[in-house]
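Q: How would the structure tokens look for this protein?
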Amino acid sequence: MREKPNIVVIGTGGTIAGRGETSSNTASYDCSVLTVNEILSSIPEVSSLANLRAEQLLQTGSENFNNEHLLKIGKRISEVLKDDDVDGVILTHGTDTIEETAYFLHLTLKSVKPVVVVGSMRPPSAMSSDASLNLYNAISVAVHPTSRAKGTLVVANDEIHTARDVTKANSFKLEAFRSPYGALGYVVEGQPRYYRMPWRDHTVSTQWAIDDLEALPKVDIIYAYGALDERVIDTVASDARGLIYAGTGNGNVALHIVAPLVAAARNGVHVVRASRTGNGVVIRNGAQPDDDYGWLVVDDQAPQKARILLMLAMLSTPAERSALQAAFYRY
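A: Here is the predicted structure in token form.
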């Protein structure tokens, strides 16, 4: 029996690795300037929680992440998790797209070991920074046996979220992250307390393994608004295999947008209706005759999460419409 768990902390940059000119700079600062080793060395308390090994995989704000970054992160974490001496992984990450990376890992990693993605809304140099406590809490979650088999987790502001649900819902406040059904639990004085479980399939229960993925199909998102030009649909659909349409309300589609979306579906683009509201369920054959048009619906997924799921679902052979729709109800 080891005295302490072994945790690998993988750094990718972000605000948690940022630095402002003064301690009062909470929203204006240089991003991704600190290494993960520098961040850990500023929090001596973490050494009591686990034996930590740090590595710098990337060093950039998460707004820059693309599909290649997702694959690189996922493959490295998968490799680390295969080490029998490793008990869990922490991924430090910019908050801008933390929910997308976390959900990708949630669907593609094949391990029950805890994987916790963590960032901060304020850089470590700020007088009210959340960076140190978020990272401390993330390690506390990763080392706790109750965190196993829950998929990828996101820890922020004393809350533990499932990667499937969590979204960034504020541009600068500390309480920036929310899940529509609430957090899985809290971190209280360095101890995780869980109150619910992730319900949808994840990690070892999904049909995708990160080790088998070499490329992801192109899926784009179009955001609906009152004066949206239908030519935008044609342009995006011309080189995308999938299209998430973030419609108004219950995934509503304006009359002048229906025809180009129908044409895209008939030309082989998988069109998925979502909602720009950020909450609720998009009902199939409700606001639109999806069966007639050859469209899909997201169920309750936010557009940016739906994009991740559709990319993976389209890798199934054959990527039939019924199978794709089933994926949105399963995951």
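The mean pLDDT is 97.

The chain has two domains: 6-205, 218-330.

Upvote if useful.
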